[in-house]
Amino acid sequence: MPLKPLSYRQIKRKLEAAGFQIVSQKGSHVKFAKDTIEGKRTTIVPRYKEVTIGTISSILRQAGLTVDEFENL
């Protein structure tokens, strides 16, 4: 399933459903983190009305999630 632009709130809900928690915020960017068996995973999410597909792909790569996993959350 191809990605589409999403709002910060939609991305936040999906990351929280995957077990991520907000750690800090600096300006308009929010840091999410999750402890895993491999170590700590962190990802930065811009607090924008619409986050582009390329940025969402980067967020998923940092979070260690596939597109299908992310869509099904």
What report would you give on this structure?
This protein has helices at 8-17, 53-63, 67-71; strands at residues 21-26, 29-35, 40-46. The protein is an alpha+beta fold. It has a 3-stranded antiparallel beta sheet with strand order 1-2-3. A hairpin with a 4-residue loop joins strand 2 and strand 3. The longest helix has 11 residues, at 53-63. The two termini are 13 Å apart. 16% of the residues are buried. The model has no long low-confidence stretch (mean pLDDT 95).
Keywords:
73 residues, alpha+beta, 3-stranded antiparallel sheet, 36% helix
Helix and strand arrangement:
Blueprint: H1 8-17, E1 21-26, E2 29-35, E3 40-46, H2 53-63, H3 67-71
Antiparallel strand pairs: 1-2, 2-3
The description of the largest β-sheet is: 3 strands, antiparallel
Estimate the global geometry from the Cα principal axes: globular
The neighbouring-strand order within the major sheet is 1-2-3
Question: Total strand count, please?
Answer: 3
Distance between the termini: 13 Å
Mean pLDDT: 95
Helical stretch count? 3
SSE-based structural type = alpha+beta
SSE string = HEEEHH
